[in-house]
């Protein structure tokens, strides 16, 4: 992202300088003590722990809590920001409070009553008596506040702590309160909720008088009274600055504050956030802020990579070869190589400066195409060129504009103006697979000048933005669900994912551990239930496929064929029977059974016949004779079907009419390499193929057997599963392929039905692209 975070950068450089200094110090120490050190020893970055140790005496935070919140709010503060401050945090509660977890002071003669005037004043006194000479700053905090410790530190380091300071969100009470607070018109106080900061000097001046102030309370408002005391004895008031309303952010929604979306400019700009009423929300907020910090660090790292690349360029080094460069004989520019700890990233990619042509296409196909966003999205990549802007893109654009506005407004104060975002007129974007996303935005902004000649105008500005990829990270998730499933003792990725992961890892030269024995040897039996009526040739293909994929591979499967006598082709029936007989003769243990029926065919009833042959604990797969499959599908069926928990309804890939397929597509072999845009489509609305345990099928009430012919029994069944407590696993299954078969539309159908039949025939005929090409080729024929 081109939007630079100057502040973070400064902080980072500060840290870096700190590190350099410490390195110099420690090496001189070593020299004096006569220990030899190699000149080429790489500079070590300090970990967070040590970094904080350098600033241990910056601030002391006193958190006001109560006995009943020690295990919840107090703990959550201590687990999150409380333990990250550059100094010390201590919790203050009533007399007799105890905690094994948080550092606690149980103040004598103090109870947990509200408002906590006495607790607060006694806490300040305690801070003074024990720590006033150890820390520069003192914070009075509540247990429902979140503080961004890095930003807080940055703020405090920019202020002279030797002077008296009383910093916080300025309050004057609302109009009706104002009279009762006994404040003069030029007087204020720092509101307690979002936290109050006192410099050492302030605390020193106020501390001797705290007892006195406590005896002379005008109101029950603890923060108002503290303000009064500070004004009287330290001679200062709470900082009068509009900025403080932003830095010390208080949300009005009470209990539900910070429970919804945190991606808001208020959250991003604040240093302290209040109120966080539940400990879960505290952890959530902390995680979110950590995410922001990671982003900022990645941004800084990116800028450093660019600086390095630019500097090395001046020295005559190509950006592509930087990983090999040596600064001197034994001092490589990047000591840690890829894969090693401390590796800093690929400068040859990350260091490339931002410009619209940082990627140069070599061929026409490699030219990156732009898409247009305005009120809707215009894209050539879909058959429907004009679409709704999806939620991910919307969120992405929101992020980008927020960052742009932060950047634009980072100098607002100095320039006496503020610029607000109104709208995006239109924008172009493209995704560059190597470097990231390019964006060109035409934005409507409102420019408000509040200093000098005051002015409000609407302006349009173009923004050129590049979001840069920062590298690939792989995390293995320990899916404890699988541990619970008794069928799977293994938590490893399934073979198809493994295949992809292996490809990635082989590029990174990392080897995955082999699949454990338990997951390859012990496989639940899958009972195929296959209704057949006529269609001998197709049945033959299915059976051959079953033989190759299951029997010959020693898969733990059984096949139940429900064979119907089809009046129109009786020879299909006998041929099919012969085929099964022949198969069973060749494989004694093949596990293929056939049940015949004279009835008129309905798919639901046929499947029901199959189900009745099984036991309650059996795993069943409803399948069609048009399908071909590979063994990875069997693995997915086993993984995604869990008794009493999950039912698997794969989305199958449906091939187009072979006449319109890619000439290289070979469907008689395996399913490998078939799936692409021209060969077929994913049958989003097909629910005929599914797997579940028989006991779950029974609990669901089974199929509706009143439906005749092909159709709808699967949809109604799917509906039942949706309504039940079972989880549906619905995902594309690249190993399950439906082969095209001719649909005949009866000439005698009524007009509406015939139109529908022809329509669905056309849908499955061929890819629109293929048909379009044919049309263009044989245009004259269509005249
Ligand atoms: C702050 O409060 C407002 C309503 O008062 C609410 O709409 C908003 O979502 C809150 N912000 C956060 C971050 O919780
Ligand atoms: C996965 O989680 C379980 C239970 O939480 C734990 O016992 C196991 O050690 C974890 N495995 C790995 C590899 O982290
Ligand atoms: C195989 O799995 C079943 C449960 O599906 C289990 O009862 C059995 O002990 C397992 N056998 C082996 C050898 O792991
Ligand atoms: C086959 O499946 C059955 C039932 O799911 C199971 O008991 C049996 O152990 C499996 N056999 C093999 C060889 O995995
Ligand atoms: C099918 O019909 C024939 C006579 O038409 C009868 O002999 C046979 O038993 C029937 N089979 C079944 C399974 O109903
Ligand atoms: C298609 O695949 C089958 C089985 O793998 C093979 O026997 C056949 O020769 C292939 N056909 C073509 C045209 O490649």
TrEMBL record:
It is a single-pass type II membrane protein. It is an enzyme of class 2 (transferase). GO terms for molecular function: glucuronosyl-N-acetylgalactosaminyl-proteoglycan 4-beta-N-acetylgalactosaminyltransferase activity. One of its GO terms (cellular component) is Golgi cisterna membrane. Pfam families: CHGN. Its main location: Golgi. Its EC number is 2.4.1.-. It is found in: Golgi apparatus, Golgi stack membrane. Keywords: Glycoprotein, Golgi apparatus, Membrane, Signal-anchor, Transferase, Transmembrane, Transmembrane helix. Gene3D superfamilies: 3.90.550.50, Spore Coat Polysaccharide Biosynthesis Protein SpsA, Chain A. InterPro entries: Chond_GalNAc, CS_glycosyltransferase, Nucleotide-diphossugar_trans. Belongs to the chondroitin N-acetylgalactosaminyltransferase family. PANTHER family: CHONDROITIN SYNTHASE, HEXOSYLTRANSFERASE. This is Hexosyltransferase. It comes from Callosobruchus maculatus (Southern cowpea weevil).
